[in-house]
Design brief:
158 residues, globular, Glucose Permease (Domain IIA), 3-stranded antiparallel beta sheet, 1 helix, mainly beta, single chain
Length: 158
């Protein structure tokens, strides 16, 4: 099980839309979940232990918005968008460790709730090869609904 990027996370919903998986957008469905912090926390936590394998830019026309990508120890690819990285590529991280600081999107989407767009992917080759299928090189990964792996209300231990 992974953890959300904030200890007090909730799924955002505002005039820009619903932050849930498969929420409708103008021409597509939302392939991630947008987590916000109830308290306004700014430090973004690693959902899983692994290694930072990519630091990128969310938009080709604006280098100010960044993302952090973690390859979990279990092989999942977790991408946290709208996060200013505090780590470098090849850094090892533990679940719950701070990996960056959330960025405000207000300059691009006026009035949007500050959030971390969270994507989880698994290498499709791995999934299908284990089932006996061969996969062409054009298909790289399979999108997964983060709510299958991240609980906002983890069970309390006794």
């Amino acid at each position: 099980m992974f953890i959300p990027p904030f200890e007090d996370a909730f799924v955002r919903s505002d005039k820009w839309g619903d932050g849930n998986w498969d929420a409708p957008r103008k021409t597509r469905l939302h392939k991630g979940i947008d987590y916000s912090s109830k308290s306004g926390a700014t430090k973004v936590l690693a959902p899983a232990s692994g290694i930072i394998d990519k630091l990128g830019f969310c938009y080709s026309d604006d280098p100010s918005f960044r993302y952090v990508q973690i390859r979990s120890d279990a092989g999942f690819v977790i991408r946290l968008l709208y996060v200013m990285p505090l780590k470098k590529i090849k850094d090892k991280v533990k679940q719950g460790e701070v990996v960056g600081v959330v960025q405000s999107l207000d300059s691009r989407y006026k009035g949007i709730t500050t959030h971390v767009h969270t994507e989880i992917r698994t290498p499709l080759n791995h999934v299908l090869l284990n089932k006996g299928f061969r996969v062409g090189s054009a298909i790289k990964s399979l999108w997964l609904d983060p709510s299958l792996f991240i609980s906002l209300n983890p069970a309390q231990e006794d």
